[in-house]
Amino acid sequence: MSEGDSIGESVHGKPSMVYRFFTRLGQIYQSWLDKSTPYTAVRWIVTLGLSFIYMIRVYLLQGWYIVTYALGIYLLNLFIAFLSPKVDPSLMEDSDDGPSLPTKQNEEFRPFIRRLPEFKFWHSATKGILVAMTCTFFEAFNVPVFWPILVMYFIMMFCITMKRQIKHMIKYRYIPFTHGKRKYKGKEDVGKTFAS
């Protein structure tokens, strides 16, 4: 490999200014993501605010329905991945290769592990909304369509997909939402305490 052939290196072997700029920009972005991790409610409120602004923009502009439909399908796919277990129990029925969700009352409790973790769900949804918002600034993405058909098709697809997901949850007996750590009750203290 000759001198300067590496990605991001200048002719003298040092990283180029552009490469250093984008590396630093990526580090700053990752730092902000890391700082936002514990603030789940705030992150989702900001994302809901962005989606509300996006909906108002589309309503006022009276266009970009295809972009909105694509965003809706993308968010639906993210939501289904968020509700689904990492290891699909229907695929694990035949093989005993790894852990699966308990299907009987006397089986050991295994925590629900999502296919798409909450943080990645939030991050992808926010990026999707920002990309859709950016598309509304370009007339090329404003394809004329009859939007009520898109709305009806999206509602049908949402209902069919969620029905299938709920049937899957009932069949394999898992709930994708938990509230805090599970608490177990010990034996009640029926004896008297000893006084010294």
From TrEMBL:
GO biological-process terms attached to the record: protein retention in ER lumen; retrograde vesicle-mediated transport, Golgi to endoplasmic reticulum
GO cellular component: endoplasmic reticulum; Golgi membrane
Signal peptide bounds: none
InterPro entries given in the database record: Rer1
Bilayer topology: Multi-pass membrane protein
Gene label: Rer1
Chain segments annotated as transmembrane: 41-60, 66-83, 145-162
Keywords of the record: Membrane, Transmembrane, Transmembrane helix
Protein name: Protein RER1
Function: Involved in the retrieval of endoplasmic reticulum membrane proteins from the early Golgi compartment.
Cellular location(s): Membrane
UniProt keyword annotation of S-adenosyl-L-methionine present: no
Family in the record: Belongs to the RER1 family.
Primary localization class, coarse: membrane
Pfam families, per the entry: Rer1 (PF03248)
